[in-house]
């Protein structure tokens, strides 16, 4: 499968219920309804190691108390990896996905 670059990982954090979350997140696309995406993605570490892992692109609600924070920031699309340890995915790694996934996330900016 041909993959395209989606993002450079700026941070990771573990949420027990959903797995290893990659940052940055994505704004919920304005056009149409969002459908969660399950996909095997490729990750290339800064050291050149290449991994294939299962990822979930899903909308989550962030419980942000500040009323000035926009709805976009309260309902982001997160990228999470199940069954992956935090130390396996270093900051600075690059995530590659199917072109259709990138289009779903960033629309015509892909």
Mean pLDDT: 90
CATH architecture: Beta Barrel
Q: What is the CATH domain class?
A: Mainly Beta
Strand ordering within the main sheet? 1-7-4-5-6-3-2
- Our count of domains comes out at 1
Radius of gyration: 14 Å
Query: How widely separated are the two ends?
Result: 18 Å
Fraction in beta strands: 35-45%
Summarize the structure in short.
This protein is mainly beta. It is 11% helix and 41% strand.
Write up what this structure looks like.
- The chain has helices at 71-74, 99-106; strands spanning 4-8, 11-15, 19-26, 37-44, 50-59, 77-81, 94-97.
- The protein is mainly beta.
- The chain has a single domain (4-109), classed as Elongation Factor Tu (Ef-tu), domain 3 (Beta Barrel), CATH 2.40.30.
- The chain has a seven-stranded antiparallel β-sheet with strand order 1-7-4-5-6-3-2.
- A hairpin with a 3-residue loop joins strand 2 (11-15) and strand 3.
Which key features would you list for this structure?
single chain; 110 residues; seven-stranded antiparallel β-sheet; Elongation Factor Tu (Ef-tu), domain 3; mainly beta
Please outline the helices and strands.
Blueprint: E1 4-8, E2 11-15, E3 19-26, E4 37-44, E5 50-59, H1 71-74, E6 77-81, E7 94-97, H2 99-106
Antiparallel strand pairs: 1-7, 2-3, 3-6, 4-5, 4-7, 5-6
């Amino acid at each position: 499968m041909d993959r395209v670059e989606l993002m450079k990982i700026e941070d990771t954090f573990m949420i027990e219920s959903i797995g290893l979350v990659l940052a940055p997140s994505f704004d919920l696309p304005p056009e149409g309804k969002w459908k969660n995406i399950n996909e095997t993605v490729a990750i290339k570490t800064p050291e050149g190691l290449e991994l294939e892992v299962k990822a979930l692109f899903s909308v989550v609600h962030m419980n942000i108390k500040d009323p000035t924070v926009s709805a976009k920031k309260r309902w982001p699309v997160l990228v999470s990896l199940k069954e992956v340890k935090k130390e396996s995915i270093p900051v600075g790694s690059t995530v590659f996905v199917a072109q259709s996934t990138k289009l779903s996330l960033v629309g015509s900016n892909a």
